[in-house]
Amino acid sequence: MARMATTRRVVISTAAAWLFGFLIFFPILWMVLASFKTELEAFAIPPSFLFFHWTTENYATVQERSDYFHHAMNSIIIAGGSTLIALLIAIPAAWSMAFSPTRRTKDILLWMLSTKMMPPVGVLVPIYLIYKSFGLLDSRIGLVFILCLGNLPIVIWMLFTYFKEIPRDILEAARMDGATVGRELVYVLTPMAIPGLASTLLLNLILAWNEAFWTLNLSTSNAAPLTTFIASYSSPEGLFWAKLSAASTLAIAPILVLGWFSQKQLVRGLTFGAVK
Amino acid sequence: MKHVLGAVCGASVLLAVPAMAETILTIATVNNGDMIRMQGLTGEFTKKNPDITVKWVTLEENVLRQRVTTDIATKGGQFDVLTIGTYEVPIWAKKGWLVPLANLGADYDVADLLPKIKDAVSADGKLYAAPFYGESSMVMYRTDLFEKAGLKMPEKPTWDFVVDAARKLTDKSAGTYGICLRGKAGWGENMAFLSAMANSFGARWFDEKWEPQFNTPEWKATLTTYVNLMKEAGPPGASSNGFNENLALFNAGKCAMWIDATVAASFVTNPKDSKVADKVGFALAPNTGLGKNANWLWAWNLAIPAGSKKTEAAEKFIAWATSKDYIKLVAAKEGWANVPPGTRTSLYQNDEYLKVAPFAKLTLASIDAADPNKPTVKPVPYVGVQYAAIPEFQGIGTQVGQQFSAALAGSMTVDAALTAAQSATEREMKRAGYIK
């Protein structure tokens, strides 16, 4: 009887999880489906779900009109560069705040978070003027810099929380076993911090990949990433949903594939070691 | 750690340095069919001008507006040619943000530009932008449904006729609606249509002393007619419909009438995109007998920002893209039906164009019927038919548009929407110093 109740609960919770997952995934699925429709079908009311005239015409048009690889390469450099630099700055910062906190640590953390509370458009003109003066407009380094700065508070906060959860007792145990500071860092702390580092890296990469405000406003053509590639397919006069969907599918494909492949490692990392 | 940091920074700098070249023109534009065609034909321009390379930046209309405004206001110099609307041209020209186009070449034939369009892109007698394509608005209607209902569309319909016909042609059970009109909030969306409609009802945005006029009976008549008409004969969810949504509805055969941009005529008569391509008729935008039709005037234009350092090459490009030869080039490559309309008189005298564009005469008549300098029945202090060419209009227009969209959605009464529009406009105009 108890087993039946448990089985029923498992079935219900599994079904609920699948339903919830499907709801979350539905907009992406709809976008992918729309990318294979004609413009008229993409706009049709009532919409057709699977039974429509499938076409790859939109992908051909997007490929013909835009240099996808140029934009994708810019996205990889900008998202990758800003993530790596943010991590390099954030790791020592979070480490010191987690393991050697001072009276001001909490204030510093809050101050850093407060920079995320202002809407970016509020500083658009000053940043634009600074970038103009330094010749950073439409440059990848300029975008790497601004995205790195924008995401730094989140990265530091995430890493701080992960590091904070590492029990000091483990470090002390390692020291009692005669581990030097170097060995303690490499063999004890790093394995325990890897899950946190990996998820922070992936989240930051996704945030930087999808960032649209600064990338649209500070780039024109040379440094334009995939966000500008998507924006170029919206039209005030003319049907564009199918082509826009094709462009969006192409734009999210790399990050989706990356997420898919790193999923196993991430989950494994998150449940690995002494900290859960 | 030091090495890693150095390597990462070094790699970023190396990868981030943009390539340099001789004369690279960066052109900002919107994703409209005619602009995409122009991008496709850029090779023809660079063939004639091998020292010039063209780079396109295509953006969504509102993003483009924000992007180029930031760049031009800060003299960022990121763009050499801008695609801007007739709303921006007089405002930006006045601020000294645009370079006057004085060297378009001897064979450019400025006199051939349609006078109303030329006026809209000129300030103090100087041309500050060259029109790439122009449009007005008109009625597009289903000839088969009109015939079936025993109705005949006059060439110059009145609002009474349109309202009556829309009611008769509505068959909600069959999914056919008498009329499709813009409802989505925005100064360039529902307010473009409603401002033009208000002009035909004798209303105006401001009186001669810049006092907002939403408390007048003319505006009440406009909004009441619009809301009642859409409730009785409009499609469901009309308050979120803009140009594209209505285009999709009309092309799918759901609308008996649609009043919108003349440029839509080529979309609704294209059998590839439209189910009703061979059943569409055209008429002038409706009136109430006061001497003004409910049609607007708009053009997408090419202009040079004051921050550009390549004005000579930029002007060469503009002269090429807005010339009579460019129209011939498009006709030769893509057919006469695809040439950019609404800018040159000679196009409307071309038999080959008139043969493939059944909407050409109506487009020209609609453009001629709109006068940005005298847009309303009563006098106004502003220029612009469906907008007032002042910098504050974008914000005010969108705020008012939201109230009117709410009235259409039924979440607000017509009176409440007009009162809210009046007080919002008064507040903004006081803040901007137009009124005390």
Automatic annotation (TrEMBL), chain A:
InterPro entries from the UniProt entry: BP-dep_ABC_trans_perm, MetI-like, MetI-like_sf
TM segment ranges: 12-33, 76-96, 108-131, 143-163, 184-209, 240-261
Span of domain ABC transmembrane type-1: 72-262
Pfam families: BPD_transp_1
Primary localisation category: membrane
Membrane topology classification: Multi-pass membrane protein
Compartment(s): Cell membrane
Gene3D superfamilies to which the protein is assigned, alphabetical: MetI-like
Keywords from the UniProt entry: Cell membrane, Membrane, Transmembrane, Transmembrane helix, Transport
Family: Belongs to the binding-protein-dependent transport system permease family.
Designated name of the protein: Carbohydrate ABC transporter permease
From TrEMBL, chain B:
Localization terms from the record: Periplasm
SUPFAM superfamilies per the UniProt record, alphabetical: Periplasmic binding protein-like II
Signal peptide range in chain numbering: 1-21
Assigned keywords, A-Z: Periplasm, Signal
Major subcellular site: periplasm
Record-stated family: Belongs to the bacterial solute-binding protein 1 family.
Protein name: Sugar ABC transporter substrate-binding protein
